[in-house]
């Protein structure tokens, strides 16, 4: 006889149980623990027999003495057993009983399976089945802390004096077997199969079930469900519900002899014998452990979900902080970029005042012009300006260049008063003026003429910058007009290219920029812009709208 097949509890539960100390005939027991818990039995305790100390794991008892005399110890306290008396043994109490007379001790025993004091083993939990609907779980390993589960299993195993193991949905042990019996160890060592070590899957049952183990012994299997999903099993035992039969003992002796397993029979007889009341209490306790496992799983899933969300929030906060830091650094750099020119032209103003006080009038005037030039450049670099402001800026620039080139530049400015209030992009004239002085007039090494003209024709502004300098060679002019960057190293093409990009941004196709030049005779740059009647609104609407 080896490991038996799964059997229903009804097929395995006896109406009368036989023990070394006597018998229990069950008068009443529940068909469904959910509907009723009490078990009632008639106990016949043989003369001078003793039931050794045992722990009432998960059950409480009421004893009513019918006849005979005896004594009991409950948690170390002595109580005489006399007819007509009623005694209560609380859950998890240590109990010991014996018949002290020559007659049979008869009692009515009432069992109430309970896990009311399970918090001695399990942490408190609050469980609602609806919580399981929020999560999907494939296996116990996904939701439970195995070391913590092992500790709980060990505590309950010690309290119940039972071997226990917890398996996953595939029948693999996820905990170490607690209190594995000598009988089971001896048979496993000699190659016999064992439900505690071999895969044992109970997904076909919904409630804790008593199943055949081996040689009249039984074990209790309690499936673990997460909602409707089977995820594992708690397996405990083996135990006897009756004294072993002679057939079982003969088979054990034969196995001991043939296989040479020393002490197999004695270890078999050491298997714990329990009443059905105790069996019900064990089942109830396993259900409590099941509930704890599922609740702990939900707590862990919720914690992991919260942890993941927290990490996401922290990451978002970190990203936002990095962006804010980058923005702050950019603002600081912008402030520093503004401070440096401000500091420069403020310093230049002070130098100019000191130079003027020392009688260096020319140096003072040059310094003031440079300071004014920087101040306007800082304030207007990203704006549209009135044409008259552009001319003021050009005058400061030309003044400084005249001092640099020792009055080699003679400037003529003639602009129609009707257009001086129109707006143009800042430094529209500065670029062609700079090219005229640096690349046209300076190479002459004699005084040259720089003309700036502005007129209004057919509602369009015509701006011209003309010099009588060295001019531009035809092939070079061709490259400049094409935007060829080969000439950018000399500054001419690069400056005009930037000017064209800015004019294109503000005016689109509504402007023209032409260059005419003859080598040795000079150069004229002509810019044609739409007339805005002194307002920049039309230009603002055009900008960025292409």
Structural descriptors:
single chain; five-stranded mixed beta sheet; 21 strands; six-stranded antiparallel beta sheet; alpha+beta; disordered C terminus; 546 residues
Q: Number of helix segments?
A: 12
Spatial strand arrangement across the major sheet = 1-2-3-10-5-8
Share of residues in helices: 25-40%
Rounded average pLDDT: 76
Describe this structure in words.
The protein is an alpha+beta fold and 546 residues long. 38% of the residues lie in helices and 25% in strands. It contains twelve helices and 21 strands. It has helices at 9-12, 146-160, 182-189, 246-259, 264-269, 276-357, 361-380, 387-404, 430-441, 474-482, 492-507, 537-542, and strands at 16-19, 22-28, 39-45, 50-55, 59-67, 70-74, 77-81, 86-89, 94-99, 105-113, 163-168, 209-212, 218-226, 229-239, 384-386, 409-415, 423-425, 448-457, 460-467, 512-518, 522-530. It has a six-stranded antiparallel β-sheet with strand order 1-2-3-10-5-8. A hairpin with a 5-residue loop joins β12 (209-212) and β13 (218-226). α6 (276-357) runs antiparallel to α7 (361-380), α7 (361-380) packs antiparallel against α8 (387-404) and α9 packs antiparallel against α11. The longest helix has 82 residues, at 276-357. The protein starts with 8 loop residues before the first helix and ends with a helix. The model is unreliable at 1-12, 116-132, 485-491 and 541-546 (pLDDT under 50).
């Amino acid at each position: 006889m080896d490991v038996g097949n799964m059997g229903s509890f009804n097929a395995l539960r006896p109406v009368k149980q036989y023990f070394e100390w006597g018998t229990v005939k069950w008068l009443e027991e529940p068909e469904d623990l959910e509907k009723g818990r009490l078990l009632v039995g008639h106990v016949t305790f043989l003369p001078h027999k003793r039931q050794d100390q045992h722990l009432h794991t998960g059950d409480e008892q009421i004893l009513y003495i019918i006849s005979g005399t005896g004594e009991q110890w409950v948690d170390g306290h002595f109580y005489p057993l006399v007819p007509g008396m009623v005694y209560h043994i609380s859950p998890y109490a240590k109990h010991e009983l014996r018949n002290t007379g020559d007659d049979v001790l008869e009692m009515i025993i009432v069992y109430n399976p309970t896990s009311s004091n399970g918090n001695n083993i399990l942490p408190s939990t609050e469980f609602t089945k609806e919580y399981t609907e929020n999560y999907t779980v494939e296996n116990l390993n996904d939701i439970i802390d195995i070391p913590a589960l092992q500790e709980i299993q060990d505590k309950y195993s010690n309290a119940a004096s039972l071997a226990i193991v917890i398996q996953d949905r595939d029948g693999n042990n996820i905990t170490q077997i607690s209190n594995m019996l000598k009988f089971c160890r001896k048979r496993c060592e000699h190659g016999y199969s064992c439900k505690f070590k071999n895969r044992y899957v109970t997904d076909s049952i919904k409630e804790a079930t008593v199943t055949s183990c081996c040689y009249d012994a039984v074990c209790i299997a309690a499936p673990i469900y997460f909602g409707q999903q089977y995820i594992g099993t708690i397996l405990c035992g083996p135990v006897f519900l009756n004294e072993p039969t002679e057939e079982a003992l003969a088979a054990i002796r034969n196995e001991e002899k043939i296989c040479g397993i020393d002490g197999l029979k004695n270890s078999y007889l050491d298997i714990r014998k329990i009443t059905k009341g105790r069996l019900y209490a064990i089942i109830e306790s396993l259900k409590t452990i099941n509930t704890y496992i599922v609740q702990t799983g939900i707590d862990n899933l919720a914690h992991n979900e919260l942890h993941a969300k927290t990490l996401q929030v922290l990451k978002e906060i970190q990203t936002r902080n990095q962006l804010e830091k980058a923005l702050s650094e950019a603002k600081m750099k912008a402030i520093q970029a503004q401070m440096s020119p401000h500091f420069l032209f403020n310093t230049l103003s002070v130098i100019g005042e000191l130079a003027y006080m020392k009688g260096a009038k020319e140096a003072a005037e040059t310094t003031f012009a440079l300071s004014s030039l920087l101040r306007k450049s800082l304030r207007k670099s990203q704006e549209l300006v009135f044409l008259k402001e552009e001319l003021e800026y050009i005058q400061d620039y030309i003044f400084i260049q005249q001092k640099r080139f020792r009055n080699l530049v003679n400037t003529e400015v003639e602009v129609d008063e009707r257009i001086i209030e129109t707006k143009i992009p800042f430094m529209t004239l500065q670029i062609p003026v700079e090219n005229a002085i640096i690349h046209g007039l300076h190479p002459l090494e004699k005084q040259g003429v720089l003309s700036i003209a502005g007129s209004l024709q057919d509602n369009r502004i015509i701006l011209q910058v003309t010099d009588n300098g060295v001019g531009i060679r035809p092939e070079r002019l061709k490259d400049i007009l094409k935007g060829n960057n080969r000439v950018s190293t000399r500054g001419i093409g690069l400056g005009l290219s930037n000017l064209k990009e800015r004019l294109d941004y503000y005016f689109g196709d509504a402007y023209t920029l032409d260059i005419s030049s003859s080598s040795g005779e000079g150069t004229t740059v002509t810019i044609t812009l739409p007339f805005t009647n002194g307002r920049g609104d039309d230009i603002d609407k055009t900008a960025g709208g292409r």
